[in-house]
Amino acid sequence: MTDEQLGLLKQFVQMCKANPGLLHQTQYAFYREYLESLGAKIPPGTDSGSSKTESSKIHTEETFEGNQEEEKEPELPLPELDNSGVIEDKTCGEEYAMGDPGKEVSDEDIEKAQEHRQAAQMAFSEGDYEKSVEEYTKAIEFNPGLAILHAKRASTLLKMAKLSAAIKDCDKAIAINPDSAAAYKFRGRAHRLLGNWVEAHLDLALSCKLDYDDQANEWLKEVEPNASFYSNSEGAKKLHDYQRAKERLADEKETRARQERIRRAQEENKRAAEENKQKYDEEGDDLDGEVPPGLFESFKNNPELAKIMEEIKKDPSKIGQYLNDPNVLNLLGMMGGKGGGGTKPSTFNMPTGDTNDSKPFKQEPPPKAPEPDLD
């Protein structure tokens, strides 16, 4: 490792000390996993203190209307960074051939690759970037082990704003030749256009170290202010506070949504209970206007029992399925005897061995105890 690379590594470690949250970013997962393999404890990405919880409670005590539109999440201003020049990636999922790494390249293949490379350079100078990419791709297929072809195709993809594709090409070039200054240069430029300031600074600085280039140095100076903001302890604190504010807003939004779901569920349960009560009130005629004592309490305490009785009412032949259930038998007794009032009992069809044949099952009122002779 060169002194320059060692210096960049020290700078990165200093940034992680100032803002440990960086380790939870996807691009640094490999470093986080390495630290964890050594037994290091990585601080959590989200601070969940009591003040945060209390703040969430205060903001989630609102009452929602059922048809209320979802509130717009307030936008937080970004920290003081100059994001001018950041553009949208237009890769759109395209995949470009990387060549067969196991291909045995012949002298003829090398000549063909050189022809397509020259055609690609010509198309690039004429502004025909699509054709340039096609020609570089053909050159790569003939000579897949040449890192400069991937770096040059990446420079063309940058012109087309296909930043992710350009980064993939540069990664391939660096895998073939770790000292490819052009690959670091164009990958650094792609990161700059995506707003990845730290990555851009690392790549461009290494490119200038490997092979100084005026354009690479100009791009390096362009990203230095924002990159230093990340490494600066005050800037890192601002970014950390910004991230915490975003997480707090997301937590509050989720809490409000959860509270609304609970409210709607409670309303639905209440409405269902009222409908059940109204239905049984309206069906009082089936019981000759009398409601057996404890009937509503049985349904209220055991909603499953109410479903069973509704099922039996629709299809009396199903009563046989529940004759071993003491709760069902007790309720049938209440409905049949009507509290000992002497009115007509309810009648259900008792299924026999043949499921299509049934006979009446009559629940008689319980016998009265003998009365003493008072004469």
From TrEMBL:
Domain STI1 span(s) in chain numbering: 292-332
GO CC annotations, alphabetized: catalytic complex; nucleus
Stretches with biased composition (Gly residues): 334-343
Residues in coiled coil: none
Composition bias type Acidic residues, residue spans: 63-73
Family statement drawn from the similarity comment of this UniProt entry: Belongs to the FAM10 family.
Protein name per UniProt: TPR_REGION domain-containing protein
Organism per entry: Meloidogyne hapla
Higher taxonomy: Eukaryota, Metazoa, Ecdysozoa, Nematoda, Chromadorea
